[in-house]
Write a structure and sequence with these properties.
It is a single chain. This protein has 69 residues and is mainly α. The chain has a single domain (3-68), classed as Protein Yjbj, Chain: A. The chain is built from four helices and no strands. α2 (26-32) runs antiparallel to α3 and α3 (36-47) packs across α4. The two termini are 13 Å apart. The model has no long low-confidence stretch (mean pLDDT 90).
Length: 69
């Protein structure tokens, strides 16, 4: 999913992101607003993982989101 697609579909994906990363608050999700970079940063902060690990998690989540669609 490219940057524009994620931004455009963010309203649809917010619930899925909340389920995937339960430590993220509603405010965190609102701040992400479809930005992969912001989502990565929020995951890093909430879960104490490196950027690469956060990116891997996002990649997997995107794949699963596409399958479910």
């Amino acid at each position: 999913m490219n940057k524009d697609q994620m931004i455009g579909k963010w309203h649809e994906l917010k619930g899925s992101a909340r389920e995937q990363w339960g430590k993220l608050t509603d405010d965190d999700i609102a701040e992400v607003d479809g930005s992969r970079e912001k989502l990565s940063g929020k995951i890093q902060n909430a879960y104490g993982v490196a950027r690469e690990k956060a990116e891997e998690q996002i990649d997997e989540w995107e794949k699963n989101s596409r399958r479910a669609a």
